[in-house]
Amino acid sequence: MPRSSHVLASLGREARSIQVELERTGWRDRFDFLTRWAVEPLDLLRELRKLKPTVVHFSGHGSRKAAITPRAGQAARRDVVVYGRMDSESLGTSLHQVGDCYAGQGKFAAALSWFERAVAQKEKGDLHGHVDPGSLGDSLRRLGDCHVSLGKADEARASFERASIIDSGNEP
Q: Got the DSSP string for 102-129?
């Protein structure tokens, strides 16, 4: 959970930037943009089970990895990758983006471009499970060390019909 008003303002700007980029795309009527806070470690898992999102974006502002940091006296912090992989098959989640890769404004457009390209690749039969975003062209190079994996690739195109994005902001 962010500890300063500066981080909260940053998360608000990032959420707005994502929403603006989604509204500019040809797919704008096929996305629901939802933000959720993971205040307690199980909050994230509960929201994933409740919403059954297609696209999940975790944002770990101020750290190299997105993580849920518990309050004093609780178990050690848990990397959100654990939660993302824990139940993704039963959740039906198709695209996971984990880390602080989209912390800058405007970078979500590149992520959305990546997703659209992944769908196009799948339609051509070129997509096989795991994709390195750096290999998908100039627009994605600025995403740096992002790690994006696409599961259930055969459902990628249909997933646009029920896509939701969760942005969970946490500061260790």
A: T-STTHHHHHHHHHHHHHHHHHHT---S
Q: Contact, 60 vs 25, CB < 8 A?
A: no
pLDDT in tens, 97-134: 444 444 343 444 555 555 555 555 555 655 444 444 43
Provide the residue range defining the domain that includes 93: 5-169
Burial, 154: exposed, middle or buried (Cβ in 10 Å; 0-12, 13-18, 19+)?
Answer: exposed
Q: Which two tokens stand for residue 91?
A: 């959740």
Question: Using CA atoms, how far apart are residues 59 and 93, in angstroms rounded to an integer?
Answer: 17
Between the two ends of the chain, the Cα-to-Cα distance in Å is: 8
Going through the chain in order, the beta strands assigned E by DSSP cover 31-35, 55-59, 67-68, 78-79, 95-98, 147-150, 163-169
Evaluate the CA torsion angle 159, 31, 146, 141 in order and state its sign. Answer: positive
Q: Rounded to an integer, what distance in angstroms lies between the CA atom of residue 50 and that of residue 158?
A: 20
Instruction: Give phi and psi for 160, each to the nearest 5.
Output: -60, -30
Contact 112, 21 (CB under 8 A): yes
| pLDDT tens digits for range 58-110 | 655 444 444 444 444 444 444 444 344 444 444 554 444 444 444 343 444 55
Number of domains composing the chain: 1
